[in-house]
Write a structure and sequence with these properties.
Elements lengths: L4 H19 L5 E5 L1 H4 L3 H4 L10 E5 L5 H4 L3 H4 L7 E5 L2 H4 L6 H18 L4 E5 L14 H4 L4 H18 L2 E3 L25 H16 L1
Parallel strand pairs: 1-2, 1-3, 3-4, 4-5
Length: about 210
């Protein structure tokens, strides 16, 4: 079966990670996950804060699910030997109506267990999944957001928090600045109802950096 163009593109991105990691400074900060991580330019914005800010490497891969991340942990995390790892993975799994949240968390736990084994001293920050906004969504995205609802995201976040507690990691939720009065992703902060625009990422940048620098 022929691969979709987006997947070919992302597989090339992972190959590039291997090359970039050769030049990267070990023992620093890594952000890993899917598109909501890939699109967060924290690695660029952090440089604007001055030379005292530690290097941040963004290894998010858009479109990937938990089962996609499992085999690419070398490229996204291990080769960098980070001391802090920020993870946001699983939202694409939530877009699949056939995927129970429990199965997603099982695979998420497998990811954590591999990291714990390879990098036992690393601090792991498990980020809450971001809200969406069905009313602000493009027509082509609305079918997806009828599955990936905020109610489902909120339930999944509870499970991520429980998983973090079980494994002894940090669960962090920086969603407050992104949410409107109804708990949706603010319309001015979204590209098409699901992904976040630069203004939205700017709204949470300071909060995320507090954890990077603590």
């Amino acid at each position: 079966m022929e691969k979709e163009p987006w997947r070919i593109e992302k597989e090339q991105m992972v190959k590039d990670f291997h090359l970039w990691n050769l030049e990267a400074e070990k023992g620093q900060i890594v952000f890993a996950g899917s598109s909501l991580m890939e699109m967060f330019p924290i690695h660029l914005w952090a440089k604007e804060l001055g030379p005292d800010i530690p290097p941040i490497y963004n290894r998010g891969v858009g479109g990937y699910r938990t089962n996609d991340m499992l085999p690419i942990l070398d490229a996204c995390i291990f080769e960098l030997e980070p001391r802090k790892i920020f993870i946001n993975i699983g939202t694409n799994d939530l877009s699949d109506a056939s995927e129970p949240i429990e199965a997603v968390m099982d695979r998420y736990e497998q990811i954590l267990m591999q990291i714990e084994k390879r990098l036992p001293q690393a601090k792991i920050y498990m980020m809450a999944y971001y809200p969406v906004n069905y009313d602000a969504a493009s027509e082509e995205l609305k079918p997806c957001l009828r599955i990936r609802t905020n109610a489902k995201i909120n339930e999944a976040n509870k499970q991520v928090e429980k998983l973090a507690a079980k494994r002894g990691h940090r669960f962090i939720n920086v969603n407050a600045p992104l949410m409107d009065s109804q708990g949706r992703l603010k319309s001015e902060y979204t590209l098409e109802g699901m992904h976040i625009n630069p203004e939205g990422y700017r709204a949470i940048f300071a909060d995320v950096m507090k954890y990077v620098l603590e």
